[in-house]
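A further point concerns the way the authors explain their paired sequence and structure data. Each protein is reduced to its one-letter sequence and a matching series of backbone shape codes. An entry of this sort, consisting of the sequence and the corresponding backbone structure tokens, reads as follows:
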Amino acid sequence: MKKGVPVSEIMTKKLVTLGPKDDLVTAERLFKKHHIRHIPVVKGDTIIGILSYTDLLRISFADAIDEHEEYVDTIVYNMFTIPQVMVHDVVTVTSMTTIRNVAQFLSQKEFHALPVVDDGKLVGIVTTTDLIRYLLEQY
């Protein structure tokens, strides 16, 4: 296995992002359309938060309802804004942070994605899924 490989080698560079004025219905649509679980919330190129699919599930009680699940989700989602639901104190790494350091950090924390920021600008995101794919390529 290679040592010192920067996270820029495995991070997702084509980002799906949200703005603070977007709504949670839009967020859910993006999660499902792109098959992702984390979306950075940005103001311009600057990250101001991160929203996870788990964050949406926490505020939704629609899992207990079959018939009108989408309708109930919409009602619940309209009760909250993205800034109310997203994580504000986002931990970030740079594109030169090593894959090993990212893996070590994520293995010790309770979240599964790290935005990649260079010079204050969001340039990517690295997730536990990216790390697993990288490890699988090594075998």
Remarks:
- The radius of gyration is 16 Å.
